[in-house]
Structure formats: C-alpha cells, structure tokens
Specification:
Blueprint: E1 21-26, E2 34-36, H1 37-46, H2 49-52, H3 55-70, H4 74-85
Antiparallel strand pairs: 1-2
Helix pairs in contact: 1-3, 3-4
Length: 104
Amino acid sequence: MHLRTNTTRAAPSALPDWSRRFIPPILVVGRAPLFSLNDVVLYISELSPADQQSSAWQTAAIMLRTVAQHHGDTGLARLAVMRALHRRDVDTKPRRKRKSFVVR
C-alpha cells in the first residue's frame, strides 16, 4: 500500500529567515514602525517580563518563529502581533443583555 505524503507543507530551513518583511509595516504608537520579523522580536524583548509571558505575546512569538522557519505567510504573524498589541483595547466587561421590545 502506498501512502501519500503531504507535499504542500514547507520543510523547515536550516536557518530561519528573520528578515522577512511585513507589508504594510506594523505601526506602534510612540515608536518606529515594525518592518520585519526581526523588528518584532526586538520589540518583544523590550517588553516587561509580565507582558512577554501573556498568552497574546506567546502566540505572537510562536507565529513569528513558524513563519521564519517555514517561510510561511507573514500575514499570520502580523495578525498575531496586532492582536497582542491591542489586547488591552478590548472591552472585557460583560455587555448588558438587550431588552426585548415585544408588544404584548
């Protein structure tokens, strides 16, 4: 019996390519834009240890490493970084339940 292998998955390269660029660059308030995977890695290294350990930044780091090693789509890493940058902008308060305006 012949087993088919998945040929669409890229094999990890010997050296990750951290110079891969984001188009458009990621804009950060009060800082120069983040143009490449390496720029984001440096940005993460400047964060406080508590921020680095947050699940949002951990996910971003995993996506960055995956994109660098497997030459994946930088859009996925960009999305993870944007979510980590804006994680505090999300309203965490539960929303009030809407009242139904049904006429009885």
